[in-house]
Amino acid sequence: NAGVTQTPKFQVLKTGQSMTLQCAQDMNHEYMSWYRQDPGMGLRLIHYSVGAGITDQGEVPNGYNVSRSTTEDFPLRLLSAAPSQTSVYFCASSDAGTDTGELFFGEGSRLTVL
Amino acid sequence: AQKVTQAQTEISVVEKEDVTLDCVYETRDTTYYLFWYKQPPSGELVFLIRRNSFDEQNEISGRYSWNFQKSTSSFNFTITASQVVDSAVYFCALSEASGNTPLVFGKGTRLSVIA
Hints:
heterodimer, A: 114 residues, mainly beta, 4-stranded antiparallel β-sheet, B: 115 residues, 6-stranded mixed β-sheet, 12 strands
């Protein structure tokens, strides 16, 4: 049972480089989201999607792009990485039709921007 | 706008003590959902419970219990007879309306249980 899969798990970038964090889920969930976790800040929402072709901004969207061309995939793109984007990133998905509405998280991707 | 406050940044208890983690929320919606997640030292996020705004019954699951009080906008989490394996960061979260809306998280409470 794969659940939510994030790649890569670790990445080091130089300032100005671009990269994409991949997120895939195999549970046919309509809802997917990206959070970043920083010490003392909890989890802050970057972008989310309620279905293929639909995305919206969260609390901290600047510097990040997303797209949702399929139900399964929700990649997060950093166009020009900055040290302030050093963080742990979590992708999550859920099916609002279930009783619990549980948000399933990936294992996280630790990004360091030098 | 919705907001979740976990005023306790860090708590340290001795094994077998009971501990309560506080969570206070703000929302203008009458329909909303409250969650608790656990993040052990290994880093993954583990779902513990979801409660909707129309169900104020307290919930008990083994050593875990949750006290939902709409009158004080609180959804507190109690661990009875704490164990070292309970050491983790605990997050309270809120989503409004359908439940398919984004979760807003509190900043978390780091619980350390000392043997």
